[in-house]
Amino acid sequence: MSGAKSPDRKSQASGSLPPCPVIRTPRLTLRPHLLSDAEAVTASLTDFGVARMLLRVPQPYHLGDAREWLETEANAGTAWNAAITETDDAHIGVVSIEKLRNGWHLGYWLNRQAWGRGIMSEAAWALVAAFFRQRPDSTVLSGVFADNTASLKVQAKLGFAISGIADVYVPARGATVNRIETRLTRDAFAPATE
Ligand SMILES: CC(C)(COP(=O)(O)OP(=O)(O)OC[C@H]1O[C@@H](n2cnc3c(N)ncnc32)[C@H](O)[C@@H]1OP(=O)(O)O)[C@@H](O)C(=O)NCCC(=O)NCCS
């Protein structure tokens, strides 16, 4: 796997990240987003099976929401929002690491057509590996809703440990659900096939 090889001292000192790298894995290319990804992002996030597992997706979701996100946030300096693509460069999902109030957070989703082939395990591992090369002393936070077994498995394989549980409001469900909170240090990060 490749991409974001050496720590960027300026970014480390400022607490930001260098621009989202292009990362190649055996089956995938992770790359910065393009405005032309708007239709694919919309098609994925209008699927309730995807949106119901996410904390911050506007409901209902429209093409304008995707365009706004692509224009303002997708390539912002405080985050790596990597588009997940296969050989044809078609956008099939997102894996991101962003700085929030209490630290760096991993998030991700895949178009339903791409589920069940180990894609997210491969994509998330590659982005986290690149992140730890930049910020080896940081901890990565994440979490899954209590009914998201697939996502909890993805995180367990990376080395995430459960750190707590919280009630959160999920706009897509219009309900409060239990969220299992998780965290990953570089020491616990599972060695994979880099
Ligand atoms: C969660 C998600 C990213 C998983 O992506 P994926 O590429 O299908 O995941 P992987 O194939 O890498 O791994 C999933 C693991 O969970 C298992 N799994 C899948 N569905 C499952 C289910 N309903 N119950 C139990 N295990 C399940 C798979 O067998 C696999 O385990 P294995 O590696 O031991 O075989 C994808 O389902 C998705 O985008 N869901 C909607 C959005 C979402 O949930 N985002 C994450 C929010 S925390």
TrEMBL record:
Keywords: Acyltransferase, Transferase
Molecular function GO terms recorded: acyltransferase activity, transferring groups other than amino-acyl groups
UniProt xrefs under InterPro entries: Acyl_CoA_acyltransferase, GNAT_dom, N-acetyltransferase
Comp. bias regions, Basic and acidic residues: 1-11
Ranges for domain N-acetyltransferase: 28-183
Region (Disordered): 1-24
Keyword Membrane belongs to the record: no
Lineage: superkingdom: Bacteria
Family listed: Belongs to the acetyltransferase family. RimJ subfamily.
Protein known as: GNAT family N-acetyltransferase
Organism name: Ferranicluibacter rubi
